Amino acid sequence: MNYKIAVLNGDGIGPEIVDEAVKVLDRIGEKFGHKFEYTQGYLGGESIDKYGIPYSEETAKICKESDSILLGSVGGPKWDNVEPDKRPEKGLLAIRKELGVYTNLRPAVLFKQLKSASPLKDEIIGEGLDVMIVRELTGGIYFGPREYSDEKAVDTLPYTKGEIERITKKAFEIAKLRGKKITSVDKHNVLDTSKLWRKTVNELAKDYPEVEVSHMYVDNAAMQLIANPRQFDVILTDNMFGDILSDEASMLTGSLGMLPSASLGDGKVGLYEPSHGSAPDIAGQNIANPIATILSAAMMLRYAFNLTKEADAIEKAIEEVLQDGFRTVDIYTDGMKKVGTAEMGTEIANRI
Ligand SMILES: NC(=O)C1=CN([C@@H]2O[C@H](COP(=O)(O)OP(=O)(O)OC[C@H]3O[C@@H](n4cnc5c(N)ncnc54)[C@H](O)[C@@H]3O)[C@@H](O)[C@H]2O)C=CC1
Ligand SMILES: CC(C)CC(=O)C(=O)O
Ligand SMILES: [Mg+2]
């Protein structure tokens, strides 16, 4: 079958990691008889350079006419001084909002071969870690009304009941297919939005008696992720808390460069992007870890195209590459074979 994929490289390491995901998708296409057609769009800094704005109508059209979107990451020092509404990150927020992708799935899964790359002790890791962070993506403080002057700045954190309900339902549906356990993370002791969040989660919990629900304050959750990560199955949380906790959870898996994500809504087109940023400190050096982006492409096959065998093949190839000892520098440990971004992508593609 033919699948149309919009490809947005973004900035920093974006082009390098997206190239490797495309390499792997092409191999899947050859092996399983699919045709992936790519159309290049522009987001973030690269879009500012081309169109003067971080998200253009041209790119919006390409995305809406595609079956799915593969995205690198945006931002970097080059655009740090552009006016706030034109920053690269505003382009990312705009495309998420426009596509209505309110569910951000960030699976933190530790490949057993990377146990020694995780900073956690063996007894804490145990048999392994598999936490699904379900992050609300199109509401909350990143989108609330704001004001700024040299004397006062205001950000606001609005959530409607409807916004909380729809992400909570997604989390329950996901939990039903996994360990049947949700930890809803909030700041109920301080924030009114968290009060509404907790009340809504408890109301919906009645429709899912098979799923065990508990609540945790975000500050405690940040600590518990390190102290006892195996207690978590699905973490349901808001936009900013999910952003922060997912970077933290990524380290349990060895590196931020291992954490993929899928951003999904009720519409046809989802956004598949690594959880990390554009890593300007290592851009252009062929050292970035492409695995988060390649795993995001696997999530695309699974969620957007229903290509389960193909998604499994990517995940298995990654496991084999890790088993064979190949490591980018961020997950390197003594005795392993250090490889660059492109070599890692090739090793993965070769095992499909
Ligand atoms: N989704 C997106 O497009 C996001 C964009 N950003 C933007 O990215 C820029 C850099 O932000 P930072 O705070 O530095 O976060 P970052 O996630 O880009 O990097 C944090 C650290 O992790 C490392 N790292 C990230 N991805 C890696 C990979 N694949 N392989 C190996 N190491 C990796 C980086 O080298 C850096 O040391 C900023 O402009 C920020 O706004 C940040 C987060 C998400
Ligand atoms: C750059 C921000 C808009 C978002 C972010 O950090 C993320 O989605 O992980
Ligand atoms: Mg982030």
TrEMBL record:
Site residues by UniProt (Important for catalysis): 142, 187
Binding site for Mg(2+): 219, 243, 247
Enzyme Commission code(s) on record: 1.1.1.85
Superkingdom assignment: Bacteria
Major location category of this protein: cytoplasm
Ribonucleoprotein found in the keyword field: no
GO terms of biological process kind: L-leucine biosynthetic process
Molecular-function annotations in GO: 3-isopropylmalate dehydrogenase activity; magnesium ion binding; NAD binding
Signal peptide: none
PROSITE patterns assigned to the protein according to its UniProt record, in alphabetical order: IDH_IMDH
GO cellular component: cytosol
Pfam family, one: Iso_dh
Record's keyword terms, sorted: Amino-acid biosynthesis, Branched-chain amino acid biosynthesis, Cytoplasm, Leucine biosynthesis, Magnesium, Manganese, Metal-binding, NAD, Oxidoreductase
Subcellular location: Cytoplasm
Keyword NAD attached: yes
Subunit structure, as described in the record: Homodimer.
Family statement drawn from the similarity comment of this UniProt entry: Belongs to the isocitrate and isopropylmalate dehydrogenases family. LeuB type 1 subfamily.
Family annotation (HAMAP family): LeuB_type1
Protein name, entry field: 3-isopropylmalate dehydrogenase
Organism the protein comes from: Leptotrichia shahii
